[in-house]
Amino acid sequence: MTPRAVAEVYGSGWYGEFQASFGYEDNIARTYKSDTVSDQIASVSIGGGHARKLGKSAQLILSGYLTFTQHDEYVDIDNYSISLGLDYTFQPNASYSASWYNIRLSASDLNYRDSDPREGIFWLADVSANKRLAPGLLWHAGYRYKDLMFSGKSSAEEEADAAFDTSSHEIYVGVDYQFRSAAFIFAEYAFRDGDIVSTISGGRAQNNQGKYDAITMDPVFDAPCSGLCPPGYAYRNEGETNLWTLGVSFPVEVVNVDFTANYFDASSDNGRDYEDWLIRLGMIWTF
Questions:
Q1: pLDDT tens-digit profile of 34-50?
Q2: Which pLDDT belongs to residue 10?
Q3: Does the domain spanning 13-286 belong to CATH 2.40.160.40?
């Protein structure tokens, strides 16, 4: 889902939520070579949670979601996930320009159609500070930690799937500008330090001079082949990624719609670079 597609919950009580999105990813295999592949991606999610006010200055939200993601061409990475989350918001001062702070923790159980190496529990921790700079203009900055941990795999399976055993640290800063009632333009920049996974077709590369940290067979992006064609492999390296997000969000009847563009520019420690675009149209209905 897009950055704006989150529940806007006030007060205490139960709420439900339905989300849907459709997008296009330019380099879905995250390859640094010229054989990039793209795909169209659709996703639906349904869930809800319970919000509780904690005094006059804090709110706690517990939530759960079931999400289905489908790819137009690379169907082996179609997946569903079950997620549980906790959001805590604290605003020590109730004045108009007072800062508020948010802590978010979530865990998602990822299950793929035919890509067992990608399966596991995806953990996310996010801490942010937010402040109103002017009427209609909000600023935020924070830190994210992401970690995909294997679950229920044997030691041999974990070793074979090691390219997808990833974690990263991320700092970010962004703004939201309200240009009319309930309509926003939003932008964010993030710097990520951690694991980068890139899938390359055409067989296994040689690990000369430690050019990758882990390797896993990954044939999901291979072109149709009638002969004995070597499968693709996923490679994991440490590296740095710059991420830019730009979007617009606005209400349409009872739903909120957003259009978002994400650009990724990654550079791994072995000197390999890749770029990726993700453009997505999303909607959210809270009830």
A1: 778 999 999 999 999 99
A2: 57
A3: yes
